[in-house]
Each structure stands twice: as structure tokens, then as C-alpha cells.
Amino acid sequence: MTEALAHGRRMSLADAGFYYLERPGAPLHLAGLAILDGSLDLDALAGRIASRVDRAPRYGQVVREAPLHLALPGWEDAPDFDPRAHLHCWDLGGRGTQGELLAIAARRLAEPIDLSRPAWEMDLIDGLEGGRCALLHKVHHCMVDGLAGVRLFERLVDDEDAAGEPAVRTRPVRAPGAPARMAAAVVDELARRQQQARELAASARDAATVRARLGQSAAGLRSLARWALDGVPQLPWNSPVGESRRLSVTRLPLDALQQVRRVSGATLNDVALSVLGGGLARFLTGLGQREERLVAMVPVSLRSSEEAARLGNRLSAIFVPLVLGARSEAERLTLTCELTHRLKTEAAWSGVDGLLQALDLLPSPLLGRIARRVSVGRLANLIATNVRGPESTQRLCGRELLEIYPVVPIAGRIGLGAALFSYAGFLHVGLHADAQRVPDLDKLTDAIGQSFRDLACATGVL
After folding, report:
1. Could you count the other beta carbons within 10 Å of the beta carbon of residue 401?
2. Across residues 276-304, what is the average pLDDT?
3. CB of 252 within 8 A of CB of 429?
4. How far apart are CA 407 and CA 118, in angstroms?
5. Which parts of 226-308 are beta strand (E)?
6. What is the 8-class DSSP label of residue 285?
7. What is the average per-residue pLDDT within 8-36?
8. For residue 315, is pLDDT > 70?
9. Exposed, middle or buried, 48 (CB in 10 Å: 0-12/13-18/19+)?
10. Do 97 and 129 touch, CB atoms closer than 8 A?
11. Per-residue pLDDT tens for 70-84?
């Protein structure tokens, strides 16, 4: 039992939340769609994963629930782990178009990951035009957040330190029997309680810190309550999410976005949110729907520098109004900066973080029952995330990764997700939507591109 506990680990509340919240027809996995220069050999990819499992143990571990839910779920070695069982291959015959690629990716995104095995899958789509191929990498959200997902994938790419390493894995730790699982769950839950008590006692000794945190959490909860009470606009994709998916991608030159940032005095994230808002404004106008604002749920990383390499979820979220009703793109950016500055001043992310910390005080069996009954409602109109990736071009099994498009899950009544990922000189944009609610997703992609061009012209960049 001790050996198994040392090798694996118990999930955090945030990790377990994503595990519990998955529903039929609404899988909660993150994904990345990479375009590679040339073909990728399936055996070479399987060998690369096998050789890196010791550097990224989650690739070879499976979710195990505690007996009677006495503790949060944990990770155990999969005794029969075979990376090839997680790999799927498609061949488009050398003439595959981007439309065909995105259709395959959308279909695969709609399919849940089999959580009786390690919580990831890869689809190798070969035979694209120009001698290229693509790799769709799906990882369940209980395993990683956006930043951790990037770090996980980085452990697979080529590097000099790993050159020539053998494709072997240390022997997996034997899974404990039922009595040992029961005992481990009790020990883990008691340890969680003791850690919480120590943290509360340490905080209580510093009255000023306690007052500051309470004030920050109160401000954050007020910000959260504003959206919960006032509601958000009803948009076409804010109905129960169906089972079919649509995917659309584009990329924007990062150098031009950085120039807009410098000229305007905004942050890069403000510029990205403004461009997204401009694209949505154009798209909705085309649908005959006019709104002054809509609300984006934006994940916020809480990782310290020491936590950068850890897997799992270390994040909160803020609810950001995206400006639709602006007279120009320059005005939209100014209004966006004002809104995000106010949210930062209010420490709006602390509302969700404080709520999670409060829930973490509940016993694990009760947490599991609550989470399984929670429904993802309509606190926001869409999910929007922005993650920084490598500045230089990466290689996988000798092939250059030309483009990498991120994908966030959609669920509940939030049927649209916009994920942004800076990589190798471009801001890669992945739009993921309910295919029935947003059948013309490509029009939104085009509108985002037009919003960027208009903003760049308005600031003198283009």
C-alpha cells in the first residue's frame, strides 16, 4: 500500500471536479491539433511515448476511485499499458484538405476518452495536401489544465538530452487489493484534513493576511454573483450542448499583435480579447442579433514558478465582458482594457478560487455526490482561454510542428469555446462549437481575422 501511494497521487479538488462533471455527450477533454511537415511513423510515435512515460507518468496511469468515495479519486499505474492502444490512424491519400482534417478532428472531439484506461488519446491523420500530416492529442481535463497540457506535450517533443534513449518503462507498481485501497483512502482523507488544519492555523496567525484574503475573496464573490444574478445574453449556442461538434481554426501574426500592444499600451491578452469581441460582434450582426456585450469565462492560472512543471489543474476563472457595441476597433480595445483593469482590481478570479477552497473543506464522499449532480449552466456565453507556448518551432520524431491549434471542451449551456495559443510566431486560434447550434463556425473565424486586420489598421500597425 505504501509503495502504491508513493508512486501515484490523489487528485486535487479541481482535478476531481473535471472527472465528476463529465456527462454523456459532453466529454471534458482538452486537445491540440498539430500540423507536421511530412509523414509521422506510427511505430516511431508509439516508441517515443513509451520512452517518455517515466518523464510523464500520467501517460501510463489510470484513474481509480476510492472505495465508497472515502477520498478523492487517484492515479494508479496501468499494469498492461500499451501506447499503441491509444493511437488511431487515418489516411487521406495525399490529397486531404483542411476541411476533411477538421471534420475528422471534430468527430473525434465528440467522442469521450475511455477512462478505464490512461486518460488520453492521439489520432494520426496522414495524407494531407503538401505531404503533411496532423496529430490530434486529446487529454482529459482531470489530468491537466491548459498550461500543464503544454508541458505534458513538451515532454514528447525532440530534445538533445533524450537522444537515443531506449523505449522502456520501469515496472509499474502493482495495484493494491480492496482492503489496501480502503485503508489508503482513509489515510489520504485524514492527511487532507490535517493539511487543511495546518494551513488554516498558519493563516490565522497573520491577521492582516486573513483580512486581505477575506476582502479579496468577498470582492471576487461579488464579481461572480453579478453574472449569476444578472444573467448573460441568450445566444444561439447557449442551449443544452448536443453530441455533434464543429471545429474551425485560424492564426494571426504574433509580431503584429505585439505591435498593437505596444502602440496601445494594452496587454497581449487585452488585444486578443478585443479581437475576439470584434469577431463575435460581426458574426452576431450577420445572424441578425445585436448585443452590447457578452460574457466569456476565462481560466486564470494560479501556478507559481515552482508549480510550472506539475500536471493537474491549478486554476481559477474570471467572467470577462467582451465588448460588442463599439464604434471602432480602437474604441473596443480601450473599453476592453478598462474592463479587464477593473476585474484585476477586484481580484475577480478569487471568487471562483474562494468557492473551491470552501468546497474543499467538505468530506470527499459528500463532494462526489454534489459534483455528480451539478450541471454546467449559463454563467457565461462562451469559454475563452489564452496559453503561451514555445517561441521556437518544435520537432516530433524528426518532423517539424508547423502549427498547433488548441481546443477547449464545451458543456452544459456553453456551446462555444475559443482557445488561443501562441507558438512559433503566430497566435493560433481554435474554435470549438456545437455543430447544430453554430453550423457556420467558419464565418466566425473569418470575422475574427477581419477584426484583427481592422484593429491593426486603426493603430497604424498595418
Report:
1. 22
2. 92
3. yes
4. 20
5. 245-253, 293-301
6. H
7. 92
8. yes
9. buried
10. yes
11. 999 999 999 889 999
- Percentage of the chain beyond pLDDT 90 is 64
DSSP states of 148-210 as a string?
Answer: HHHHHHHTTS--GGGTT--S--PPPPPPP-HHHHHHHHHHHHHHHHHHHHHHHHHHHT-HHHH
Alpha-carbon distance 180 to 156, whole Å?
34
Q: Provide mean pLDDT across the span 387-395.
A: 95
The distance of Cα 82 from the centroid of its chain, to the nearest Å, equals 25
Domains of the chain: 2-180 (3.30.559.10), 221-458 (3.30.559.30)
Phi-psi domain of 93 (left: phi exceeds 0; alpha: psi -120 through 50; beta: other): left
DSSP string, 4-55: HHHHS-BPPHHHHHHHHH-BTTB--EEEEEEEESS---HHHHHHHHHHHTTT
How many residues are given for the chain? 462
Grid coordinates of 125: 491523420
Burial code (b: 16+ CB inside 10 Å, e: under 16) for 342-367 equals ebeebbbbbbbbbebeeeeeeebbeb
- Pick the closest to residue 312 from 46, 73, 54 (CA basis): 73
| H/E element, 423 | strand 416-423
pLDDT in tens, 251-260: 999 999 999 9
| Distance (Å, whole) CA 380 – CA 318 | 10
Q: Letter for the amino acid at 331?
A: E
Which distant-in-sequence residues (6+ apart) come within 8 Å of 355 by Cβ? 221, 224
- Tell me the pLDDT tens digit for each residue of 89-112: 999 999 999 999 999 999 999 999
Q: What is the CA radius of gyration of the chain?
A: 22
In the beta sheet, which residues pair with residue 429? Answer: 250, 420
306 CB-contact burial (10 Å; exposed 0-12 / middle 13-18 / buried 19+): exposed
66 pLDDT band, cuts 50/70/90, is very high
Closest among 395, 411, 293 to 38, alpha carbons compared:
395
pLDDT for the residue numbered 229:
46
pLDDT at 1: 33
Q: Which helix (H) or strand (E) holds 268?
A: helix 268-286
Q: Which residue has the higher pLDDT, 114 or 189?
A: 114
